[in-house]
């Protein structure tokens, strides 16, 4: 018991999600927690032992494939968006086999692509953005050459929640004969449930692979990332032999890997269904609208009109505001260019949370004696 008390002391120092408006993770759905507990000892690294869990993973991949217009996509549940992005680009590189390979990504790409450059010894070329912070497809196209093994588009950028013109990127991918990876780590479980229609997935013929993370908007327990491949040639290029396991080979990056994320993600999607997910997304978009209006009435101006449940407000004082909020145990984040504060309206953010946050930010402006812009 003493040990548990000791753990509690540490755990109590964590900030509760009800004061977090700068994270792409959230409180897992209650059914996710139950499912997680049931699968606590499972290891998908040895699917011959955990046969049921392995079959459940196939079902979940099918679910995600259905949501992304390709029920027969290959894929697996991994540690998160970073691993998913690594595996997609690694498959492009392995399939192409060119000397000194490169990929072209938007300037707004998540920092996991910098890790990818280093790990895979690939040059990462960064394409310019347009005024709305979407990748400029002309700039991206101009960076493609005969050593380019793939291009990347983002459906839900980390900083602004913006969606690149994936349809244009798909045409470019087909024209140049290169693979297109869509990083929909965040947006993959938002866009399909929005009223607005945005094409970003396997519906577009140029899209080869998609990152989609249940541990972000899928309300699964951490870790639960997802990588989907258009066909088996992509994961096939990642395969290594596993002589002493119950399976002959594996194409995942990690060996031992939990089944908890699979169970929790499956449970949430099955429990909520399309309708339930739509309701969650509608809630998050409503909270985004409310916070945007409240912040505008304080004199803040959004960087872009929010596309999904991420909104940034321009301010020269972004860092000071963030620090002062942190002292008061509120968590937001900032972006450097343009200087802005960033809010992510995850399912745990309710109108009460927003009311408390707005009154705190008013106090912060008074304490710092600054104006919003
Ligand atoms: N791709 C995109 C578009 C992302 O936004 C992220 C993470 C990743 C890939 C990488 O995913 P993993 O972190 O699962 O490997 N985006 C968030 C970010 O960097 C991750 C995050 C989540 C950070 C919760 C903080 C936090 O409290 O902001």
Describe this structure in words.
By secondary structure, the chain is an alpha/beta fold. The chain has two domains: 3-25 and 273-368, Alpha-Beta Complex (Aspartate Aminotransferase, domain 1); 30-269, Type I PLP-dependent aspartate aminotransferase-like (Major domain) (Aspartate Aminotransferase, domain 2, 3-Layer(aba) Sandwich), CATH 3.40.640.10. 40% of the residues lie in helices and 15% in strands. The protein has eleven helices and 13 strands. It has helices at residues 2-12, 30-38, 51-67, 81-96, 112-120, 137-142, 166-176, 233-236, 260-297, 318-327, 351-368; strands at 74-78, 102-106, 123-127, 148-154, 179-183, 207-211, 225-229, 240-241, 249-250, 301-302, 310-314, 333-335, 340-344. The strands form three sheets. The chain has a seven-stranded mixed β-sheet with strand order 1-7-6-5-4-2-3, with helices on both faces. Strands 10-11-13-12 form a four-stranded antiparallel β-sheet. α4 runs parallel beside α5. The longest helix has 38 residues, at 260-297. The relative contact order is 0.16. The model has no long low-confidence stretch (mean pLDDT 97). It binds ligand 0PR. Ligand 0PR is lined by residues 23-25, 80-82, 85, 110, 112, 154, 156, 158, 183, 185-186, 213, 225.
Going by CATH, what is the homologous superfamily of the largest domain?
Answer: Type I PLP-dependent aspartate aminotransferase-like (Major domain)
Ligand species:
ligand 0PR
Bulk shape: globular
Number of strands: 13
Give the SSE order as H and E letters.
Answer: HHHEHEHEHEHEEEHEEHEEHEEH
What CATH architecture of the largest domain would you give?
A: 3-Layer(aba) Sandwich
- Whole-number tally of structural domains: 2
Q: What topology, given as strand order, has the largest sheet?
A: 1-7-6-5-4-2-3
Question: What is the number of helical segments per DSSP (H or I, 4+ residues)?
Answer: 11
The CATH topology of the largest domain is given as Aspartate Aminotransferase, domain 2
Task: Report how far apart the termini are.
Answer: 51 Å
What proportion of the residues form beta strands (DSSP E)? 15-25%
Low-confidence stretches: none
Radius of gyration: 21 Å
Question: What's the pLDDT, averaged over the residues?
Answer: 97
- Which sheet architecture does the biggest sheet show? 7 strands, mixed
């Amino acid at each position: 018991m003493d040990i548990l008390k000791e753990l509690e002391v540490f755990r109590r120092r964590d900030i509760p999600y009800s004061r977090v408006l700068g994270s792409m993770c959230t409180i897992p759905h209650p059914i996710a927690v139950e499912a997680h507990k049931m699968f606590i000892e499972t290891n998908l690294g040895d699917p011959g032992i955990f046969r049921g869990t392995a079959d459940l993973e196939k079902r979940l991949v099918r679910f995600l494939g259905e949501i992304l217009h390709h029920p027969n996509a290959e894929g697996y549940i991994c540690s998160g968006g970073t691993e998913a992005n690594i595996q997609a680009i690694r498959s492009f590189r392995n399939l192409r086999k060119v000397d000194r390979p490169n990929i072209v990504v938007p300037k707004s790409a998540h920092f996991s692509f910098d890790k990818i450059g280093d790990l895979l010894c690939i040059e990462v070329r960064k394409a310019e953005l347009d005024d709305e912070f979407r990748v400029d497809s002309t700039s991206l196209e101009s960076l493609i050459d005969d050593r380019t093994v793939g291009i990347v588009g983002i459906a839900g950028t980390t900083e602004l929640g913006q969606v690149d013109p994936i349809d244009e990127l798909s045409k470019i991918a087909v024209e140049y004969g290169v693979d297109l990876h869509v990083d929909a780590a965040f947006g993959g479980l938002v866009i399909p449930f929005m009223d607005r229609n945005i094409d970003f997935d396997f519906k577009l013929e140029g899209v080869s692979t998609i990152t989609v993370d249940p541990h972000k908007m899928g309300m699964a327990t951490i870790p639960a990332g997802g990588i989907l491949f258009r066909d088996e040639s992509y994961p096939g290029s990642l395969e290594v032999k596993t002589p002493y396991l119950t399976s002959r080979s594996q194409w995942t990056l990690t060996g031992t890997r939990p089944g908890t994320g699979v169970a929790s993600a499956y449970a949430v999607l099955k429990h909520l269904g399309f309708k339930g997910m739509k309701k969650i997304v509608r809630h998050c978009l409503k909270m985004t609208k409310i916070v945007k209006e409240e912040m505008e009435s304080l004199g803040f101006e959004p960087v872009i009109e929010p596309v999904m449940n991420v909104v940034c407000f321009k301010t020269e004082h972004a860092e000071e505001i963030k620090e002062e909020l942190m002292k008061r145990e509120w968590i937001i984040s900032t972006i450097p260019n343009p200087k802005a504060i960033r809010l992510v309206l995850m399912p745990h953010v309710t109108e009460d949370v927003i009311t408390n946050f707005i009154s705190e930010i008013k106090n912060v402006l008074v304490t710092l004696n600054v104006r919003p812009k």
